[in-house]
Design a protein that fits this description.
Length: 195
């Protein structure tokens, strides 16, 4: 079982990851939570750069839904009306806990950590799906659950510059540094790239 001081440290770290400023390449950025709130008014923050309203509005709706969820759950967890979610979470971080509260602290910590992950997932670059069959398993499509819980048929191969390529059918992975090779295996050729 986790000790009370360790559980409190984990809770503090989870809260800090959500509400304290982040750092990227030596620059201080607003907290994940502040970026999420900002993205409601400006969808470009969440990585949506197309000008058509049909592509911007869903991103803003996703951000709004997550803000509402975090705000509601924070009020529920802290048991008090919050003037600001940041203030309530800071107060929770310094709250006095008893040794018998360790399991509750761990549950709260896991939930708060899941909010940071949800924000990161929301802002992550969207993958490009390829129509090609997976070189490992040969599948071109797979089935997955969409946001509404329905099972849908999607292309199996997904590629992002940061994560590389993955087959969502057999779960084979290719690292970002292997993407040129992966493209050649699929029959793509990059102009100006020689081996």
């Amino acid at each position: 079982m986790t000790s009370l001081p360790l559980a409190r440290n984990h809770l503090h770290d989870a809260i800090a990851a959500l509400i304290e400023p982040t750092h990227c390449q030596g620059h201080e950025l607003p907290s994940r939570y502040a970026q999420l709130r900002d993205a409601i008014a400006d969808a470009h923050i969440s990585g949506h750069f197309r000008s058509r309203p049909a592509t911007v509005i869903p991103a803003q709706i996703d951000c709004l839904k997550l803000v509402i969820h975090i705000d509601d759950r924070t009020r529920h967890i802290t048991g008090a009306p919050c003037l600001s979610v940041t203030g309530c979470l800071q107060h929770l971080s310094t709250r006095k806990w008893r040794p018998q509260d360790v399991e509750l602290i761990e549950t709260i910590t896991a939930e708060i950590s899941s909010w940071s992950k949800a924000i990161d997932d929301l802002f992550a670059p969207k993958p490009v799906y390829l129509p090609d069959p997976c070189p490992q398993c040969g599948h071109t499509h797979t089935r997955r659950k969409n946001d509404d819980g329905d099972t849908v048929r999607v292309q199996a191969l997904a590629v992002t510059a940061a994560a590389g390529a993955v087959c969502n059918q057999c779960h084979a992975r290719w690292k970002p540094e292997d993407l040129v090779f992966f493209g050649r295996v699929l029959g793509y050729h990059c102009a100006g790239v020689t081996a």
